[in-house]
Amino acid sequence: MRPRRFTAAGALKGSIKVPGDKSISHRALMFGALAVGETCISGLLEGEDIMATAAAMRAMGATIDRVAEGEWRVRGVGVGGLLQPDVALDMGNSGTSTRLLLGLLASHGITVSFTGDASLSKRPMGRVIEPLAQMGADILASPGSDGSQTLPLMIRGAQPAVPITYRLPVASAQVKSAILLAGLNTPGVTTVIEPVPTRDHSERMLTGFGAELTVEEQLGADGPERVIRIRGEAELKPQTIEVPGDPSSAAFFIVAALLVPGSDLIIENVGLNPTRAGLIEALRLMGAQIEELNARTVGGEPVADLHVVHSPLKGTVVDPSIAPSMIDEFPILFVAAAMAEGRTVTSGLHELRVKESDRLKVMAEALTAAGAKIEEREDGLVIDGTGGNPLAGTAGDPVFTHLDHRIAMSMAIAGLVSRDGVELDDTRPIATSFPAFEQLLDDLFS
Ligand code: S3P
Known about the structure:
Bound molecules: shikimate-3-phosphate
Strand order of the largest sheet: 2-15-17-16
CATH topology of the largest domain: UDP-n-acetylglucosamine1-carboxyvinyl-transferase, Chain
Radius of gyration: 21 Å
Number of helices: 12
CATH class of the largest domain: Alpha Beta
CATH superfamily of the largest domain: Enolpyruvate transferase domain
């Protein structure tokens, strides 16, 4: 355990750069490992989750080298060319590595075991097992305490796999991507129907690598839906990829600058893909002053520098339809709401209960311990903010981060706007997505 108390340290001023996008980094390594030839990646996130993906792709035959900070070279094995690893793949804390790799392996005729840490071993895998089994994969998972299917598990892929048409029952980019990746080595056309749009990095990057992939809108029973088709037995061509900064990492500094009086911060190179930018929209509705400078395209993704100044925030009702575009940002939005004037109501957030931790329960407990007024409902939190007054902070026991990096970073930011500071039980989980977080914060205040 590495405990730490985060305390008020003054305004955030100057200019910072956040690390590469986690979702895009996973995909760059995976797709590079399937292309024939050398893929060059710059700006790769060097967090533990991404290292789990790199280790897995190496164990299955790809050559992956770090050339300099954030600069990586990948020599792939070709679609269908993954080799059976000698040992179980340890996915650590990473749900994205696990679910996307299960997809890839569903159409490779090899047998692979997956293990993970205590957090990942509780997370539901049935959502990918169900469609991948329809494609012919054989997956034996461990029974979870609530009857769900969990890690450790073993998959034997089908070769050839069977193409399917699958309508996503949960709004999940991981499930969508798992099926598309299975489709890469499946004869014919695999189709995913997405009633609610989720992050589209897989679609953008697979197209960049030369896969035959189409996206169409059609009118479904509940309104417009996206139909994504991929033609299998594709050949991927190696690419040069620049990974934009991660909006989910920028989120902590955006909210910190909004909440701490006197702050005036530039956050450079932030990815603003519309399927990821919901937090900025929600904060603007609360009165946040966030300006986009230097809008440009990096690695096929919209990017800008963000100029954020301290802004008094007002409570709001967050429309559940924007949830998928800010799904990882709710913990830090809850911190913003705890400091806003009036009430913030969130709903439709069942998915938060199956992330790295139960983020509704854990954030309700942690913010309550820090002095905020929170009501936990089944599908969201209701928060009565302080109107800009500091939170009391935690005087006694530390708050529990439950192996969840985003809980740790959100509560660290809560510490910056508290009277007594907020003590975390363990800062180590932060390294899964943002190893430089504490250094960046400390440098801003030195
Ligand atoms: C991710 C998708 C999201 C997100 C996760 C990364 C991805 O998960 O929470 O951090 O890279 O596809 P779900 O697809 O389960 O919503």
